[in-house]
Design goal:
Elements lengths: L6 E9 L4 E11 L2 E6 L11 E3 L4 E4 L1 E6 L8 H4 L4 H17 L2 E6 L5 H8 L7 E3 L4 E3 L25 E3 L3 H13 L4 E5 L18 H13 L3 E8 H9 L4 E7 L4 H7 L3 E3 L2 H10 L7 H4 L2 H5 L2 H10 L3 E2 L15 H6 L5 H7 L2 H6 L17 E4 L13 H4 E6 L2 E4 L4
Parallel strand pairs: 1-4, 1-5, 6-7, 7-8, 9-10, 11-12, 12-13, 13-14, 14-15
Antiparallel strand pairs: 1-2, 2-3, 5-16, 16-17, 17-18
Length: about 400
Amino acid sequence: MSREFRAVTQARILDPEGGTLSDPRDIILHEGRIAAITAPGEVDARDDEVLDAGGRVVMPGLIDAHVHVTASTADLARLGETSPFLVAAQAQQLMGQMLLRGFTSVRDAAGADYGLAEAVDRDLFVAPRLFFGGKALSQTGGHGDVRGPGSQIVDDHACCPHIGIVCDGVSEVRRAARAQLRTGAHHVKVMLSGGVASPTDRVDSTQFSDEEILAIVEEATGANRYVLGHAYTARAVNRGLRLGVRSIEHGNLIDETSIPLFREYDAFLVPTLVTYDRLKAEGAEHGLPPASQRKVDDVLSYGLGALKLATEGGANVVFGTDLLGGMQQHQSREFLIRAEVASPQQILRSATTTAARLLQAEGELGVVAPGAHADLLVVEGNPLEDITLLADPATTLAAVLKGGRQVVDPAA
């Protein structure tokens, strides 16, 4: 990243929650945070430490709440056999590209560990803020068990870059959850149902017993953290919500029975529609095994309907993508897909204020307000009128700031 700014001037500030744009204002920055917002003219715009937005829209940095920064391939079994040094180097590149697209914070949904998070915190490379959970918890034969039906060996060593750890029974899942939380994990992920990228389970299966899920939730809650659950069907989703899972990932096959539960428990749905779109189009090219390719159609056609149901039903909906390997370049395409059933403001909230609340960073992320991190996007055009602007960041992002430091140079 380049120089640090002390102000952004002539900024029309976008408020995702209120759905409004301000008149031009000056944003005063100090030590990576927003110190104040003032009337224009109080800052010398000729100062090299001042970024002149020139009347453009300035909005909060985006949040993607479902990424896999270590997944440089869609073949997750092969990923686990890769050198962890190579995985880390590839993760650095993948995260840098996310930041250039305007995603100043990301939540990793299995794979990233405390080492990557510390590297980001220490500014060892250019990357979004990283919320990590370590390895996802999977039952034997579950979505995080990447063995084929003939494989017997399970290597759960902490340094191996598998995205999951296999555990069975209450004592094992407690130990596995505690192992992730011991490293400072921001959340614990549990596989509540089958999935596309795993070789031996059905998408419509349910996974783990009630007692196992309750134990995981208890451990996360005791550490003042929360559980996110991979699930597709209403049966798996509803069960997870009743047992205390706070964040449901995907949820393509939910129905009308799910929405009241999201509202009752103030839980969050994180649809990841672009990943199925891309897995269908190019999954094989990027290493998705044939058995997984056959599962894509099981969830692809229902995703938009689930998003529409949740949005209209008043559930907390958060932006996520879940892309793997070379398909991660399509991260911003999620805006195009969601625009088919959701309004620009609804989508903006999902990638800013609602996402920040999920990440337990309300007031610090997702807003342009005093006290928040100075994670800012300078945008050509108005995303409140046309959300698809954010689907083309190379054209529409005039500048990206993370912690007040410039990522994208407006002159470049």
